[in-house]
Specification:
Elements (H helix, E strand, L loop, with lengths): L2 H16 L1 H14 L2 H20 L2 H15 L2 H41 L1
């Protein structure tokens, strides 16, 4: 990858990192890291996820579902998820825009060459 592309990519990354949504994600994540109850719940969920993969047990799945629902009811977690979804949407938009652009360009180039 040439340096100009890397520089432009770094510009895009910097813009995203400076966005209000990204900054809010970081801020909320710091707040969440200080919440013992929330951290304990997240650890329990991760452990249950591993158990579900290993044992594929319905009781474990139900417990995981209960814990996930509990997590999703915590306001700070809801807020974090909302901002994270916005950041992810921006990333997806950039990726899909680039894909569409080059797909269009490359397909038209092929079509143009074939018609001449």
């Amino acid at each position: 990858m040439n340096n100009e592309i890397k520089e432009k990519l770094n510009d895009i990354i910097e813009l995203i990192e400076q966005s209000n949504e990204y900054q809010k994600c970081l801020e909320i994540k710091r707040q969440m890291s200080k919440n013992d109850y929330l951290n304990k719940l997240i650890i329990e969920i991760k452990q249950l996820q591993k158990k579900v993969v290993r044992f594929n047990d319905n009781e474990i799945k139900q417990e995981l579902t209960r814990k996930m629902q509990e997590l999703e009811q915590i306001p700070i977690y809801q807020e974090y998820n909302n901002y994270l979804n916005i950041v992810n949407y921006k990333l997806d938009f950039i990726k899909s825009s680039l894909n569409e652009y080059f797909d269009y360009k490359l397909n038209n180039m092929t079509t143009d060459k074939n018609t001449n």
